[in-house]
Specification:
- The protein has a domain at 2-61: 434 Repressor (Amino-terminal Domain) (Orthogonal Bundle).
- The protein has 150 residues and is mainly alpha-helical.
- Helix content is 78%, strand content 0%.
- The longest helix has 74 residues, at 76-149.
- InterPro entries: Cro/C1-type_HTH, Lambda_DNA-bd_dom_sf.
Length: 150
């Protein structure tokens, strides 16, 4: 496979680092493959074949053509089916956006309620703190009166 990888890279006219980047591996990994120190993973082999239309059988065994024959162009019916699928996906996404907007609006309303509740609680706390200070003052006065009488 080492020879075939070298042949492929030369045939593609790519620098080794560019080939490595294109298949999402480090130049060091590619170098190890080309030196026979390690072998590409099955995922790496599949990426090479998918990206460069390479015949996996040729890459692994040397048998067959280096490149696969191009697929025939899609038929009108296949285009129509793909278009219909995209239209359905668009409608699904529109509905999801509508649902998310409604959820966001509900959350905003709840946040406003929470803010109002928080403000009411803060006002009650201030009121209780003021009342507490007044009671402390009254207790001090009563203590002083009791101490004077005693």
């Amino acid at each position: 496979m080492v020879d075939r990888l070298n042949i492929l890279i030369k045939k593609l006219g790519l620098a080794k680092k560019d080939f490595a980047k294109s298949i999402n591996v480090s130049p060091g990994n590619l170098s190890d493959w080309l030196k026979g120190k390690s072998e590409p993973s099955s995922k790496a082999l599949i990426r090479i074949c998918e990206i460069y239309n390479v015949n996996l059988n040729w890459l692994l065994t040397g048998q067959g053509n280096m490149f696969l024959q191009p697929s025939p162009p899609p038929t009108v019916n296949e285009h129509a089916q793909a278009y219909q699928a995209k239209e359905q996906e668009i409608e699904r996404l529109k509905q999801e956006i509508t649902n998310l907007k409604a959820e966001l609006k509900k959350m905003d309303q709840e946040e406003e309620k929470d803010k109002a509740h928080l403000q009411a609680l803060q006002a009650k706390i201030r009121e209780l703190e003021l009342e507490n200070r007044e009671l402390i003052g009254q207790i001090k006065i009563l203590k002083e009166l009791l101490l004077k009488k005693a």
